[in-house]
Structures are given as structure tokens and as C-alpha cells.
Amino acid sequence: MPNKKQKIAAVLALLVYVFSVLSLFAWLTGKPALYVNLTPFITNNIYPVSSIVLLLLANSLLLQTLQEKKYQQINTISLVLLAMIIAGIEFSSVAFSNRDFSINAYLLSLLPTTDTPKPLTFQVAAALVLFSLSCLLLYIRNFYTVYTSQITQIFIISMIITVSYGYIYNQRTLLEYTKEIGMTFFESLLFILLSLSMLFLKTNEGFLKIASGNSSGAILIRNMLPVIVVLPLILGWVSYLGFKYNFYSERFGAALLQSVTVMLTASILILLAHIISFQETQRKKAERETLRMQQDLAHIVRVNSMGELASGIAHELNQPLAAIQLYAAATQRMIEQTPENKKIDKNLESIKEQTQRVSEIIKRMRSFLRKQQPKVEKVEIEQCVDDVITLLQHKLYQQNIRVVKSFDYPIPMVKVDSIQMTQVILNLFQNAIDAMRNTLDRPSLITVRIYSKRRILHVEINDTGSGISNNEAEDIFNTFFSTKGEDGLGVGLSICRTIIEAHNGRLWFESKENEGSTFFFTLPLA
Q1: Beta-carbon neighbour count of residue 271 at 10 Å?
Q2: What's the total number of domains in the chain?
Q3: Between residues 151 and 501, which one has the greater pLDDT?
Q4: Per-residue pLDDT at 459
């Protein structure tokens, strides 16, 4: 489904589409639409070849927002390529002054109009080529092509706004530079609508993704764009009204206009500096608060995870404690009877080992539950995996789940917070265990693979569980979304992704329903 901004793009493209169809229909009936002279300087007709190219481009934009993805790319690019060919032929006829190649002149010769058959102006032909090329770059779905397309659209809008202002003030803008009117008022209007449609189509990519961010540069761009559009209009009206009502002479007015422009620009820049400074302070404050809340939430999840593991850990502690009791009782009997040093030493050594085992389990629990600031240090990721397997040993035994470790040694160390990494791996293991709870038709198996490639450590955790459905896959990393119903908080995977990305890594998954899932994450080497 298209988002709100894509719907705006579709509406703008639809307006261009409707005006283009109206223009073509009017040419066919011999009564060119949009041919009303608003002022002595303005001619407003849209020539047939412009209407055709605009129609194709608007249609491609509509398909891009509304059509199913499997047909989207082929159909939109086909329409854009056709528009580019038509615009290219027309541009060539203008550039080489060869009317025989002009599609516009040919169409006018066939239509029942009084217009003299002629090619488009250089400006319109160039604009149509630029639009077609920008559309093509926009659909390639690459950051740099989308970025280039959006920057091109912003420059086109700036140029066409200048032309539109010229018409508003009864000034033939292009005439001063090119000795021809060059672009009609309604052509410039449709070009602006088409440019805006293209910009709204991909607001989450390219230049607009940067402009919509929270950086100082993004804030400056957002605040300056309205000024760029409005300031020329205000200054133009000040100049126009001053001359009209004889407030000042033309020479004095020009000097006054320049002074006002400088003062307004300086005032706006000072105001923007204050706005940016305030917003930057607020942004940093919000980021600190968000980070604190994420750490608190991660701590709550760890406590909750340990609560779920409590019965298993109690079982793990009972085993060594029972063993200690037996060894101690046996040693006591030996001492009471005839002490044999070797047997007593062996029992005492066993007591020592079991005590260390209890101590290690408690130490891991305390370390995992402790609320502390992230401590980044060199860590062996396989040790985190082993710690998780130890914590989950009883749960794995209960569900008859086998863990297979496939490690490509030597495994390089990574610079991470070991507690956070243990939390990520524990969450992925618990999800795998839950996914295999009801899969009785095949062996329950968790496979952990660790390897390094190109200075990146790769970790894969695969299960043979029920898998993730296509409907669930889209929301799997969203906060408070859970596939476990009332049993899940829905924050585990969201926190896992936050932790991995905070360590400059990436977390994603692949899954087949009723076959199992594999979660992958990467981390840069230390």
C-alpha cells in the first residue's frame, strides 16, 4: 500500500495526466485548451508533443505508486523510455534546426488548428529530456541515481518558478536571455506539478532522506526551502507596487530592493541559526533520553528472560549441590572409618569442582542481571554462545533439542559489550526453542555457525521450527509485536536489532513456513 506521501505524488501525477489528456483532446477538436491569454505577454497552450511526453511520464508515476510490484518496474521503465525517445527526437530537431525531424511540427500539420507547424522551443525540449532522464534514474532504485534525480528536480523547480514569477509580474523571463518566450505559463505549471510528484514519490531515499533527517544540515535545508520560494515573490511584489504607485524611481527602487534583499537574507540566516541551535539541543536531549530508555528496557527484558529460566537454573544448581552433599557425606564416612588419603583427596577435589560450577552459574546470572553502562571490550563471541547454552541447558534437555556448533577457527575477536551480545544470542536461542515446541515430525535442532569474511564476523543461528509467515515477517522487528500471543512481550527482537546496530552491525533473517528460520547478524572485527 502506498504511504501518505506517495498518495500525494499520485494525486499530483493525476493532475498532470488530466491536463495532458485535456490538451490533446482539445488539439484534436481544433480548439486548443489552456490557450487563454491572461496578459499580453503570456501564451498558454501546451503543444501536442509536450502533452504526449507529460502524459507518459505522469502515467509511469501513477503506475509506480498504484500497480503491483511484479509489473511495476517493467511497465514504468517502458513508458519512460518511450517518453525519452520522443523528447530526444524533438530535442535533436531543435538543436540541429531541422524541422523535418520534429514530431511536434508533424503532429501540428495533421491537426485541425490554425497554428503554424513548428518544433518545440529549446527550453521545453530540454526540460522534457531532463524529466525523462530523471524519471529513469528514479526507478533504478539506487541511492546515487535517486539522489541525482531529486537534485535535478529541485533545480528544475527553481528554474521554472523563476519563469512562473516572470509571468506573474508580466515579465518574459526567458526572452531576456534566449530571445524567445521559450516556455508557456501552463507548461511551467505542469512541469512544477510533475517535479513535485517525483519528489514525493521517494521521500525515504536519496537527497530527501538526508533532508528529512535530524542533522543540522537537514534542518537548514528544511527551513531554507520555503524562503527560497517565498522571498522572490515578496520582493517582486514590493518592487512592482513601488513602481506602480510611484513610491520611488526605478533607479532608487533597484538600490532599495538590493538593500532589502541583503537585510532580509541576513535576518533570515540569523533566525535560522537560532532555530537550528535550539533544535540541535532538543535533538541531543531526546537522543540521550531514548538511549537511557533503551538501556532500561533491555535490562527489563534480561530480568524477564531470567525469570523464564529460573526453574531450569534451579535444576542446574540442585545437581552440583546434591553432588557436594554426597561427596561430603562419603568423605565424612571415610574419615570416621579408616582414612585413605587418595580417596579423600579425590572426593575433596570433586567437591571443589562442583562448588566452582555453582559459583560460575551464580556469577553468570548476576552479571547478566546487573544494570550497568555498556562496556565495550574485546570479546570471544563463541564464549557468549557457550554461556547461553549453559543457561539454557535444562530447557534444551526438556525439549530434546540438540545444539550443533559449526565454528570456523580461529575466530577473531570483536569489540562489543559481552552482556549485550549474550542477551542477543539468548533471545535468538529462546525464539528458536519456542519455534520448535510443537514440531514433532522432525528432529529439533539448533545450528550455530560463526565465521569471518572481509573483516566482518558472521553469526548464523538456525532452527528446524515452524518458521515465520509472510504476514508476520514484515513486523517481526517492530516493538511490541510478538508471534507468541500473550506469552510474549514483543520487545526481544527489537532490542536485539538496536544492540547489533549500536555495534555497527546488522541483524536480519530468512525463514520458510513449516521448515524453520535462520537469524543472521554481523559485527566488525576488533
Answers
A1: 12
A2: 2
A3: 501
A4: 93
Q: In the prediction, which pLDDT does 34 show?
A: 46
* 383-400: b (≥16 Cβ within 10 Å) or e: ebbebbbebbbbbbeeee
Per DSSP, the chain holds a count of helices (H) and strands (E) of: 17, 7
Residues 48 and 112 sit within 8 Å (Cβ to Cβ): no
CB atoms within 10 A of CB 459: 26
**Domain edge (last residue) among 203, 232, 263:** 203
Q: In which band, very low, low, confident or very high, does the pLDDT at 179 lie, cut at 50, 70 and 90? A: very low
pLDDT band at 244 (very low <50, low <70, confident <90, very high): low
Which residue range is the domain that position 425 belongs to?
375-524
User: What distance in Å separates the CA atoms of residue 313 and residue 300, rounded to the nearest whole number?
Assistant: 19
Give domain status of residue 421, yes or no.
yes
User: And the C-alpha cell for 417?
Assistant: 559489550
One-letter identity of residue 263: M
Asked whether residue 343 is assigned to any structural domain, the reply reads no
Q: Which positions ≥6 away from 364 have C-beta within 8 Å?
A: 387, 390, 391
Domain boundary among 174, 203, 232: 203
In a domain, 395, yes or no: yes
Residue 309 domain-assigned (yes or no): no
pTM over 0.70: no
